[in-house]
Structure formats: structure tokens, C-alpha cells
Amino acid sequence: MLGYLLRRLALSIVVLFGIAALTFLMVHLIPGDPARIELGASATPKAVAELRSDMGLDQPFGEQFANYLGDTATGDFGQSFIFNDPVAVVIGERLAPTALLIAYGLAIALLIGVPMAVIGALRPNGVVDHVVRLISTFTFAMPSFWLGLMLALAFGLSLKFFPVSGYSGGIDGFFRTLTLPALTLGLALLVIIVRTLRSSLVSVLNSDYIEAARARGFSEWRVVGKHAMRNSLIGTVTILASLFGYVIGIIVLVEAVFQIPGAGSLLVQAVQKRDYQLIQALALMAGAAVVIIGLLTDLFHALIDPRVRLEGRSE
């Protein structure tokens, strides 16, 4: 187990280094001079040159990258020229709405998707099963920004159940301002949960040990909930973990539609203003989150399935 853990950690470090290098390269390929953008078109060449020197943009490309890696390793992400504050402070102020929105959206997706998957799996290829798959596919096919706008129009502007923009703290503010954005995210993830969990349940429900549980007189709901669900959820959790990058992409759109002051909207603002330090830190943190979740998922599989560790040993 220790060898497997060390191999996965080493691989994760290599991936993070690649993400840092790619992010640094792509950010510097974005057209536009951040110093000129910050000072405006009327700034003198001398003022632009001084600001470029303060931002380290006058240094050779390789030296900039080396400084970037060294500062990042120590937790120093630099200064955001948009907010004139340390990047770590700016991001820290925006993480809470995004983290709560992701957790709320996943909870909605599970609360809706798990019962739909179970209902469909109990009568595979029946009328109800086809309806379940049609609904989940329909929500997935709709663009997230359009789905968010329709929800805002229906439940915000027309029925006035929820506000259509902004974010408020506290329990009451959390449910009022994040319900529509979380519902948008949850509906976008619905097809993933329904399709993967339904397929796993159909396979597990036809296995021998499930037939043995039925033969012992257990009710169908106990067979599904206690015996079949535990094995079937593993695949669904794996798929959701592997698609965390997709979730981050949806978050950027959802926060833009509902004007949530989270990390997603912060990234859009940083790109528009060419805030190199802020863009690099946000992209690196998003990549690190994907890598860490993938690593935790691999370790979870290794703990419950020894064959994973044995396969890794034979590589």
C-alpha cells in the first residue's frame, strides 16, 4: 500500500508541475500588455516600463518561470494589480461561495439523480426507464448558461421565489442566493449520475448474491438500498471525481449568469484585465484540486479493492 501511495504521489507532483508550466506559458501568450491595460492608453512609455519592471515582466522568460515556481512552492502567488492585494488574500475571499455552490449543486444532483437511477434500474428498458433517461439527457443537452437563465426567468423574475443575482452569507442568504445556481449545476450533472448509477445497478441486480438476498425474503428496497447500492455507487463516485474539471468549467458559467462573487467570476475578471499573477494562481489551484481529488479517489479504490494495488505493482 505504501508503494502504491508513493507512486501516485510522485505522479501527482509531475502532473502539477506540468499544469504550472502550461498555465505560465498560456497566460503569457494572451495578447495584450497588462501594464498598459492597468495604466490605460494615455500612460507614458516611461510609466509603462516602470510598471512592467515592478511586475517582473521585463525579465527573461526563463527567469520569470523560475521565480514563479519558487514563489509558488512557498505559497507566495504574488500581488494582484486589479485589487492591489496579495493574490492569496483575494482568492481566499472568493473561495467560500464557490465551494458552497459546488457542494450544494452535487447534493441536489444526488438527491434527484439517485432515486431516478434506482427507479429506472428496477424496470430496465420500461416506459419509466426511458422517461428517466430522456429527462436526464435533456438537462445535459441544454447549455448551462441557458439553463441558468431559464431558471432565473421562471423562479426568479416570474415567481419571485429566489433572487436572480448576488450572494449573501448566513443560512437564509445561502439558500436564497445559491439555490438557483446550485440547481443549474445539479441538473447539468444529473445525466452523469443517472446513467452511471443506473448501469451499475442493472448489472449488480442481476448478480448471484442479489438473487440470494431476494431468496431470503428481503424486500426489493432493502436489497437495492443495503446490498446493491454500496457496490454501484463506487463507479458513480469515480466518474464524478474524474469530471471535476468539467464541474469547474460549469461553475465559471453559472457564477457569470447569477453574478456570484466566487472564484469562477474572479477568473473571468482576471483574464479580462490580464492579471497574470491572479490567472496563474487560480488555474494552478483548479488543477491542483482536480489532481488531489483524483489521488483521493485512487487511494479509496486501493483501500476497498486490493487488486488495484496488485495491478500497480506489476506496472
Write structural notes for this entry:
Strands 1-2 form a two-stranded antiparallel sheet. A hairpin with a 4-residue loop joins strand 1 and strand 2 (85-86). 80% of the residues lie in helices and 1% in strands. The protein has helices at 2-28, 34-39, 45-54, 61-73, 87-122, 127-141, 144-158, 170-205, 208-215, 220-242, 244-258, 263-273, 276-304, 306-313; strands at residues 79-80, 85-86. The two termini are 14 Å apart. The protein has two domains: 1-81 and 277-315, no CATH class; 90-274, MetI-like (MetI-like fold). It contains 14 helices and two strands; from the N terminus they run ααααββαααααααααα. The model has no long low-confidence stretch (mean pLDDT 81). With 315 residues, it is mostly helical.
**Could you tell me the strand content as a percent range?**
under 5%
User: Percent of residues in helical segments?
Assistant: over 70%
Q: Give the helix/strand class.
A: mainly alpha
Architecture of the largest domain in CATH? Orthogonal Bundle
Cα-based radius of gyration, to the nearest Å: 24 Å
CATH topology tier name of the largest domain: MetI-like fold
Number of beta strands: 2
In DSSP terms (H or I, runs of 4 or more residues), the helix count works out at: 14
So what's the CATH class of the largest domain? Mainly Alpha
First-residue to last-residue Cα separation:
14 Å
Overall pLDDT metric? 81
Side by side, the strands of the main sheet go 1-2
pLDDT below 50 for ≥5 consecutive residues: which ranges? none
Q: In sequence order, what are the helices and strands, one letter per element?
A: HHHHEEHHHHHHHHHH
The largest sheet is: 2 strands, antiparallel
